[in-house]
Design brief:
This protein is mainly α. It has twelve helices and two strands.
């Protein structure tokens, strides 16, 4: 998919997060195996017949227009049928490698793709892991981690300085701001992710909360375990990427 004037689709992290939320808002009932935004275009691989893929592309175009307010429309989507298992595997990897193919170095964590969902770094599209395992069981975490250039195991991190941003990314937000349900859940999960490692005062400082609020969160019912795990993975990935860590402008 691309716009008629071939302009860049995402110029910042806010747009990237909004666009990914549109994808998962529309694609929950489509077996989406992979997607990624490049600069001027968007690739998606779905295990569905052409008419369903065409319907998904139409829904996404409407969603992107509504949320990102492009002044021009999308071109007609280019649909390519996949008839062989090997072609399917190549199509998925080709899609997820769009940043490398076009020499883009502004999305180290793949936030404009479903790679974070596949690797447990984000909880928006966790269903994509089940779909990929069903259709491509040989394509596991080692091959996907290579796309990011790191190994996530063992899940050990030494610094939580990026805790707030890690928690935001885990729920598909550019920043941990506001009182939305995803932001609130991310804050709770972030507190639990560093419980026993950081003091309440240190946690409060990193998340912009009061110590009293941190203590309240610790006593409250816990957030989903997969969100806490996603924040751990975010911290590990960010630490191991080190100087290579790069994002679209905020």
């Amino acid at each position: 998919m691309r716009l008629w004037d071939d302009r860049v689709l995402l110029t910042g992290r806010v747009e990237a997060c909004r666009a990914v939320n549109v994808v998962w808002g529309q694609a929950q009932h489509f077996p989406v195996l992979a997607f990624r935004f490049a600069d001027t275009h968007f690739h998606l691989v779905a295990a569905a017949p052409p008419e369903r893929c065409g319907d998904l592309a139409r829904r996404l175009a409407i969603g992107f227009q509504r949320v990102l307010q492009y002044p021009v429309r999308f071109q007609f989507p280019r649909l390519k049928p996949i008839h062989e298992q090997g072609y399917l595997a190549n199509a998925v990897m080709y899609t997820l490698r769009q940043d490398q193919r076009h020499g883009l170095q502004n999305d180290s964590l793949g936030e404009g793709s479903n790679l974070p969902d596949l690797l447990g770094l984000r909880v928006l599209g966790t269903i994509t892991r089940r779909w990929l395992a069903s259709y491509l069981p040989r394509l596991g975490p080692p091959a996907l981690e290579e796309l990011m250039g790191i190994r996530l195991e063992p899940l050990r991190w030494s610094s939580a300085v990026q805790l707030s941003d890690a928690a935001a990314s885990a729920v598909g937000l550019p920043r941990l701001l506001g009182r939305s349900a995803p932001a609130a859940q991310a804050r709770k999960a972030a507190v639990l992710a560093v419980r026993g490692v950081l003091s309440s005062a240190e946690t409060a400082d990193l998340l912009g909360l009061s110590k009293r609020r941190v203590r309240q969160i610790k006593r409250a019912p816990p957030p989903p375990a997969d969100l806490v795990a996603a924040i751990h993975r975010q911290l590990v990935a960010r630490e191991r990427l080190g100087e290579r860590l790069a994002f679209l402008p905020s």
